[in-house]
Design a protein that fits this description.
By secondary structure, the chain is of the alpha/beta class. The protein contains 22 helices and 16 strands.
């Protein structure tokens, strides 16, 4: 226990306990995320942010900068200023930087603590000023000193990336451990050097980044060679000094890496090599020789696979009650063998979160897998792949996944050791389970490239299959959808079994699309979530939410609070529907191949005359991003007065998404709702069916000009900055293009 941290925790609870939006800090004298969240929320309360959250997001950043970035000799000597300094000093103690006291005075000791973090993080500016990104760095559990097991060379890489690219990547950890943040910082660096504008950089490899990756070879020099050296090193291939010179050592290391991941070994770093060192999918268009599927392999489908160059196919040993009929069917094994293919068995019942994993459940899984494999006649030493199909974090792997595989091994050994154990999951899971001695080979879910367990982790040394894409091949009776896998040769599957397969009745077919639950059905969830993420990531306001909008925790058909301020609140919901609903109260516009029926600017009405050229361009880019993501779909909008509020709905209907192996399709319906609040309340609230006077000009303009859709979209686009307006009337003025607008703070 640390006495200073305990003092900080007690101060926070005494000062802010009971305040709306504050979460209690544990009084244990230990630094942890809970204490950091308490410090963050305390800062937000001091800054006047009503909707506090655990994260130091754009709203906290901009509000703090407006209040004034602290430095020696430039801190308000008010009670509020003293309390904000105490929050900073508390964060310093929690991060291991001694600020010289805990007294609310920004003295030389506090300045030196700030310089200490700036220096440890490798930042170019080391002047003791608490910039917004520095305050944010203090309020995380990221470490900026080498921690236990950290690699000094990875720390060197992390500091170099922070030094050059912190303005786009943010301040990333410099603890010597390669991780998600380091991976993103490396890609931000690549995007910067490629000349991609900062506002278009994402920290993930998209089409533009991929297309601009240079081909490097012996004799190449410069920053891209250094990036390649970094990427090779964190993939466990050491090319020597990070000097930006593509010498013999780098060439030979590239060849070794290419051989390891199954590429042609030519010593040149082309796009496929770049993608293999940067992202878990590698090149997703690369053709594999193995696959897996939930579809029965008929003779026609087996021939399709054979003709397409596939050698091995993964199939499931069992079904889940109430789920798809995905297990190996009667006579299916013979179809596979007759086509000259091999099979590798997979055991997956339900494995979508940590609750499905424990030592006891591992024992149960082994018993079920053993019984099923034996009934099909799989021979001794066949490798069965046990699935972990979620983005397991480090503590979940340690506390639940490892014990689960311990149970699998114990039970399989008790049953005579007939079968070998393999693991399916993200890179982190596969490596951890294998290094613990509980799996002989790994089947990597590489195409889940957004998983934290695939970002910042190298391909496991024992990988047998790497799942990189979902594709469809064949036609007619031979049509089949498969997950395309790269095969290393460590497991070539089984080419025969010992027993005649039992016959049994075919199980029920899939339910109709309308009854498919996107939160429970894994195929539907993956397809719909990919479309949600593709569209949602293009909507700026959604990145302000502290909710789990772009993680495996996201739920369909659930409304999420996104952000809000004194005069507004924003919510989002992603629902599914089998058919386009009737929308008699909405204005509609359809898209074909990502192109709207009319130009985005033209349905803004009179508002367009009050916008700057830059604002119009940003708005049009926003609309273009949405429509391109939607493809063939519809945009709908409505404005409805509800007492003293105005409800603005913007609905985005995607093109149809395939959600089952039968090619059933559903529409994704994303609803963004903005509530504008009347800040001129009288003693009597407005009648429920009549708008408050402040909203009348807006409702009149859209009624006459028909610009409801354009203005609704404008409101959603501008909502990240709405908190900067000083009244509801100011927001309405902006939306209708009034000449009486306050000073422009929207851009």
């Amino acid at each position: 226990m640390d006495e200073m941290i305990l003092q900080v925790q007690k101060y926070l609870n005494t000062t802010y306990g009971g305040r709306t939006g504050y979460s209690q800090a544990p009084e244990n004298g230990k630094t942890g995320w809970s204490t950091m969240y308490s410090l963050t929320r305390a800062l937000q309360i001091e800054l006047g942010i009503s909707n506090t959250s655990d994260s130091f997001g754009p709203l906290t950043s901009s509000t703090y900068k407006s209040w004034g970035e602290m430095e020696l000799g430039n801190v308000p000597t008010t009670n509020k200023g003293e309390r904000i300094v105490l929050i900073l000093q508390g964060a310093c103690w929690c991060k291991g930087y001694n600020p010289g006291g805990f007294d609310g005075v920004f003295g030389e000791g506090t300045r030196q603590a700030v310089i200490g973090l700036q220096t440890d993080a490798g930042l170019p500016i080391r002047n003791g000023r608490v910039y917004d990104y520095i305050f944010k760095a203090f309020l995380t559990m990221d470490a900026y000193k080498l921690t236990l097991g950290g690699d000094p060379r990875i720390q060197q890489m992390q500091r170099d990336l922070n030094y050059h690219y912190y303005t786009t990547s943010g301040v990333q950890p410099t603890d010597g451990h390669y991780q998600r943040g380091t991976n993103r910082a490396l890609i931000f660096g690549i995007q910067t050097e490629q000349g991609i504008p900062s506002e278009q950089q994402t920290g993930s490899v998209g089409p533009t980044t991929r297309d601009r990756l240079p081909t490097l070879g012996y004799g190449s020099t410069g920053v891209f060679v250094k990036f390649l050296q970094y990427a090779l090193y964190v993939n466990n291939f050491d090319a020597g000094v990070f000097d930006g010179i593509y010498g013999i050592g780098v060439r030979d290391t590239v060849k070794e890496f290419q051989t390891f991941v199954g590429l042609g070994s030519d010593g040149y770093a082309g796009k496929q090599t770049w993608l293999s060192v940067l992202v878990s999918t590698g090149d997703p268009t690369r053709k594999g020789t193995a696959c897996d599927c939930i579809t029965e392999i008929t003779p026609a489908r087996a021939q399709t696979l054979k003709n397409a160059g596939y050698q091995s196919v993964g199939r499931y040993l069992t079904n889940v009650s109430g789920g798809h009929n995905k297990k190996i069917q009667p006579n299916e094994l013979q179809n596979i063998f007759d086509a000259g293919l091999t099979i590798f068995p997979i055991f997956q019942e339900v494995s979508l979160d940590e609750s499905y994993f424990s030592k006891t459940k591992g024992i149960e899984a082994a018993a079920k897998a053993y019984k099923a494999a034996k009934s099909y006649g799989f021979k001794k030493d066949t490798i069965i792949y046990f699935a972990v199909d979620f983005d397991a974090l480090g503590h979940q792997i340690t506390n639940s996944i490892i014990p689960h595989f311990e149970g699998i091994n114990e039970e399989m050994n008790r049953l005579g050791g007939l079968y070998q154990i393999g693991v399916y999951g993200p890179r982190s899971v596969c490596s951890s389970v294998s290094e613990a001695g509980y799996a002989i080979t790994s089947f990597v879910s590489g195409m889940s490239n957004g998983f934290s367990g695939n970002l910042g982790y190298p391909l496991p040394a024992n990988w047998a299959f790497d799942q990189i894409s979902t594709i469809s091949i064949g036609s007619g009776e031979g049509f089949i959808e498969i997950d395309n896998n790269i095969k290393s040769g460590r497991d070539n599957g089984q080419s025969s079994v010992d027993y005649t397969e039992p016959t049994e009745p075919t199980e029920p077919v899939d339910p109709p699309p309308s009854s498919i639950d996107p939160n429970e059905d894994p195929i539907a969830r993956r397809a719909l979530y990919n479309k949600w993420e593709e569209i949602g990531c293009k909507i700026p306001v959604l990145h302000q939410s502290s909710s789990s909008l772009f993680t495996t925790e996201f739920k369909f058909n659930k409304s999420y609070f996104v952000t809000g301020g004194p005069f507004y609140e924003v919510y989002v919901e992603a629902a599914t529907t089998a058919i386009m609903p009737g929308l008699s109260e909405y204005s509609l516009i359809n898209f074909t191949n990502g192109q709207p029926e009319i130009k985005a600017e033209s349905f803004l009405g009179d508002t367009v005359t009050s916008l700057t050229v830059e604002q119009i361009e940003d708005y049009e880019n926003f609309m273009k991003d949405i429509t391109l993501s939607v493809g063939n779909g519809t945009l709908a909008a409505s404005m409805t007065p509800v007492g003293n509020e105005l409800k603005i709905d913007l609905k985005i209907f995607s093109e149809e998404v395939e959600v089952s192996i039968r090619k059933d399709k559903l529409l994704l319906e994303i609803t963004l709702t903005l509530f504008l609040k009347n800040d001129k309340l009288t003693s009597e609230p407005a009648p429920i069916d009549e708008p408050a006077p402040v909203f009348v000009p807006l409702l009149q303009q859209v009624a006459v000009g028909g610009a409801v859709l354009g203005i609704a979209a404008l409101a959603i686009w501008a909502s990240p900055a709405l908190f900067t307006w000083t009244s509801t009337a100011a927001i309405v003025g902006f939306l209708i293009g009034s000449d009486d607008d306050p000073e422009d703070t929207s851009s």
